[in-house]
Amino acid sequence: MLRREYRCLALLFAAFVIVPAAETAAQVCPGTTVTTGLRIPLGIAQSSLGNLIVSETGTAVPPHSGRISILTPGGSRRTLIDGLPSGLNDVVEPSGPAGIAMRGRTAYVLIGIGDSVLPGPIPTSHLPNPNVSSPLFSSVLAIHFNEHVEETTAGFTLSMADQQALANGETSTLSNGRGDTIQIELVTNFPDYIQRTDIPTLVRGSNPFALVAAGNQLYVSDGGRNLVWAVDIPRGTHAALTEFAPVTNPLFGVPNLPGGPTVEAVPTGIAYVDHQLLVTLFRGLPFPANTSTVMQVDPSTGAQVPLISGLKTAIGVIEKKDHGDVDYLVLQHSSGGGPFFGGPGVVLRFESPGSASSELANCLTRPSAMVFDEKTGTLYVTEIGGRVVALSIGS
């Protein structure tokens, strides 16, 4: 039987055309808008200066509209770098910068699959794009910038010549004409796709979505390949650490609902907590409720066990410590009980992995990532529509 392969994260970004987020009877809305008008923000991190560093995957008119912005907590936005690789994916949505992680004065930025694959002859199948617009799709870039640049820059722009130089292993030093510079390196370049074993003329695309730094390693969730990559930063090498298996589709056979007998894992958010990785599995079409999971993965062996189950479209997880008490915050893209994306996005608090959850916010619109400021007790959440929301949840 022909294996059905779905680009679930691409469908996630186009969710607003499927089912709009609905209101709930008793909303919890503790948030305030930090800024709006971003270019589909998919990743957020915080610098040592307390600013938010946001990756924006691009606009509907690529190529190369990906951008990294610097946001103050008060909402002032400045461009760190523009012109990052971005292209229209196989469902005609922008795909460029995705997850972002800060370590010291370096931002590690994931670049998504872009336009590396095209729709194939069978529904939901894919072919290689012979005219891909960037050699940097499905890669990790390291952007080095000092505090002065973070506080004052008017922005840098990456050219196509810079992209090619990075792909060739060169370091690009960009100047903004004011004496400020940043350095960019290619850390590693994942394969854009692999050949399918059932139909060798077709391919399965990668979809690196989020990353976390730990020591000399980066760990990357790949929603297209259903795995986590381990990246050796000094060597620039990568290897698959663990792969997530599909689960039974509880909605299989329901009239007028797409999807096969199983749903794919679709790993999205990733965190490093107490020498373990926490990975959210979004789950695939038709996105049935109670199948999404937070998995705990041993970064040494790749062994995986469920940590929090019974979720709906989980897309991020954070461990929050308060005077020895440990809570888990889980970001869900939507909260409805049915298939697809019914209901608003929510932030759930779990006092322990097996405990019942409480809702910290249930009025988000297509959230995509979050970061927690321990000093102020503020959770910042990005929304695909271009907004960043600040939720005061306590330290």
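(ticket continues) Second input and output from the same batch:
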Amino acid sequence: MTWHPDMPEEYKNQIVTGDARELAKQIPDESIDLIFTDPVYDRIEDYEWLAETAVRVLKDDRACLVWQQVSLIPQTCNAMMALSYRWCLVHYKPGRVKEKFGAAGFSKWEPLLWFDKGRLPRRRWMDVFQSMPFQSKFSMMLSHRWGKDPDAILVAIEKFTKDDWVIYDPFTGGGTVPAVCKILGRNYIAFEIDPDTAELARERVRNTQPPLFVMEPEQLEMI
């Protein structure tokens, strides 16, 4: 893997503490292969900033994947008009009912919005991806109270990236994306504004050990 020659050394495969809006200014143009992140859902201005940044830092024909809640999908798509909206991927969670809106309802799925800079090749297509009915040992190993299901993130990263690509997570929180990148042998750049959260995420990644071989999604049920 050859990083962009102007990429700061302190960003390479690191979780950096600070405001992504400032830190991202040092990321070179067209140096990122995938943005995959989980912003605070009601901060629509973060999604707008993310799209504008993605136009600059993403290589051509690369994707930006962002988690969002269903009720805010229209506002998010409007905010991210700097990119091309491609699809709403469905992360289905069988056996893991998550209460929404108090007694008003329950949800077994969550949207992952797919935007492109250019157009990602069709061979990378995915529509519905599924967590295991019960957490695999892999998922339990990487689980964190702030994070999405690691086994689902693994499936998405494998679908959208190649071995030598660089993944950028500007709102990394508990560090699930960097931890999965370490498991898969992917390169990453991650930012987290809260110092305590950033240190916990770094510790989590330090304690994550890559396997001797890369696991296929269907193998996760067996471990």
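Agent notes: Residues 101-105, 133-144, 217-223 have pLDDT under 50 and may be disordered. The domain at 11-222 is CATH 3.40.50.150 (Rossmann fold). Closing as not reproducible unless the customer responds.
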